[in-house]
Design brief:
By secondary structure, the protein is an alpha+beta fold. It has four helices and eight strands, in the order E-E-H-E-H-E-E-H-E-E-E-H. Helix content is 47%, strand content 23%. The strands form two sheets. Strands 5-4-8-7-6 form a five-stranded mixed β-sheet. A three-stranded antiparallel β-sheet has the order 2-1-3, covered by helices on one side. Strand 4 and strand 5 form a beta hairpin.
């Protein structure tokens, strides 16, 4: 089904775009929530009027996004990452953690899907993180990852999880080797039977 987006919908498209989506998704979610209208619904005059409204709204949103990018330059948010006694970090910082930090520290409400990370942050220090505020406006800000001392219980739990993971990998390796050996034996047996 072809729809005209009235709002930016992450993963679907940006405001003013004509996109094709599944009919159920359009009828049950996008249209009732006011995110889109059916592209072939109504007269072409009504759609042209709607497009003019969307273009002006898109321009306003872009201006707001550009203003926000300028305000955010030089801003930094701080996120804590657990560090063990040997300096080893536990876990990682993802887009959800960064979005929550922006909300609590800077009172900036951003959808986590708008935060751009190539991979989760696993090291302490300064990291430059991208953010997509508008289809045509990307910005950056700084995330300071600071270490928070892990408790002895957390260190024990991490060591236990690592031990379990190593045992599981060893079992998988042994099972795979046994399957390969069994397959070779079965192939040899079938060759003997044929002779």
């Amino acid at each position: 089904m072809e729809i005209l987006l009235i709002e930016d919908v992450v993963g679907v498209g940006d405001i003013g775009e004509l996109v094709k989506v599944r009919p159920g998704y359009a009828r049950n979610f996008l249209i009732p929530k006011g995110f889109a209208v059916e592209a072939n619904a109504g007269s072409s005059k009504a759609i042209k009027h709607r497009m003019n409204q969307i273009v002006s709204k898109k321009k306003r949103l872009k201006e707001n996004a550009l203003k926000a990018v300028e305000e955010w330059k030089g801003n930094a948010v701080t996120v804590n990452l657990r560090v063990g006694s040997g300096g080893r970090t536990f876990g990682s910082i993802n887009t959800k953690d960064i979005a929550e930090a922006l909300k609590t520290q800077k009172d900036i409400d951003v959808d986590r899907r708008r935060v751009i990370l190539s991979e989760p942050l696993r090291k302490l220090g300064r990291h430059t993180v991208g953010i997509k505020l508008h289809s045509e406006v990307n910005g950056t800000f700084t995330v300071l990852v600071e270490g928070a001392q892990a408790t002895p219980e957390e260190e024990k739990q991490a060591a236990e999880q690592a031990r379990i993971q190593m045992e599981m990998n060893a079992k998988k390796k042994a099972t795979k080797k046994k399957e390969e050996t069994d397959a070779l034996e079965a192939a040899e047996d079938s060759e003997k039977i044929e002779e």
